[in-house]
Amino acid sequence: MRTHALLALFLGSLVVASGDAGAAEGHLADAVNRNVFRVCATPGNLPYSNEKSEGFENKIAEIFADELGRPVEYTWFPQGLGLVRMTLAARRCDVIMGTVQADEYTLNTNHYYRTTYAIIAKKGSGLEDVNSIYDERLKGKTIGVQAGAPAADHVARAGLMPNARSYRFMVDTRHESPPREMIQDIEKGEIDAGVLWGPYAGYYAKEFDDLVVNPIVEARRPGTERLDYRITLGVRVNEVQWKHEINDVITKRQGDIDKILLDYGVPIIDEDNKIITEPRGPVKGTN
């Protein structure tokens, strides 16, 4: 089984703390700043976040701040081990955007979107409607995949590894972007298709008019890594009231959240594995 660190890295926002983080926070009183919406975030990590507030998590943070009537304030920490311990657990900020629902080191809110891996191909390639790694049309094709990512397990089981092109998985996102490299290689015809985490696939494929992104929504096969995840906000483990406040905002502003995700090309799927193409609720916008 993969570590939480690897899982969080492919999701694009590392939310894993050292093992003692939960115990250290368990006895603390609510430390939430009610005057500022304090966000723990990773710089230079598009499409998620950057210091210019250009990522979709930046935009979603603004929705929460708007609904709570507070300005956003960031604590920046590079992607890597120690993010929770050095930011949230240290009470330097009050929420981490983009946590995995099953993460054991933070208290998770309700999920505000569910997404999955996707297959990217060019229009006219004969692969533009492929939405399964096990589709026979991928046999003998050159497929891009990030080595060590959960999707690589499926690529191997489908017998596609002999012709696969590997892209780096764990990098400093401030300086490298293997997902963007993969998308560019598909566009240039250097590879036939790519299997990539949905938020990356949708965001970078938007740069080209002739690329198609198909979310993978087929049932998980026994013994394989899962490809879909519910994404939440993470708060300190003892701050239940704060969690409820965040959940209320998610309920009220789901339409606004969905609109931002869709604008950034993030594939959203519902609990029945249906692809969501319109916001699920009214769109109010932010101030």
In short:
By secondary structure, the protein is α/β, with parallel strands linked by helices. The protein contains 8 helices and 12 strands. Strands 1, 2, 3, 4, 5, 6, 7, 8, 9 and 10 form a 10-stranded mixed beta sheet that branches. Strands 11-12 form a two-stranded antiparallel ribbon.
In round numbers, the mean pLDDT is: 87
Q: Which structural category fits the helices and strands?
A: alpha/beta
Major β-sheet profile: 10 strands, mixed
Oligomeric status: single chain
Q: Mind explaining what this structure looks like?
A:
The protein is built from eight helices and twelve strands. It starts with a helix and ends in an 11-residue tail after the last strand. Strands 1, 2, 3, 4, 5, 6, 7, 8, 9 and 10 form a ten-stranded mixed sheet that branches. It has helices at residues 4-11, 21-25, 56-68, 83-88, 150-157, 178-188, 198-205, 240-263, and strands spanning 37-41, 72-76, 95-100, 107-108, 113-122, 143-146, 165-167, 193-197, 211-215, 228-235, 268-269, 275-276. The radius of gyration is 19 Å and the shape is elongated. It is 29% helix and 20% strand. By secondary structure, it is of the alpha/beta class. β6, α5 (150-157) and β7 (165-167) form a beta-alpha-beta unit.
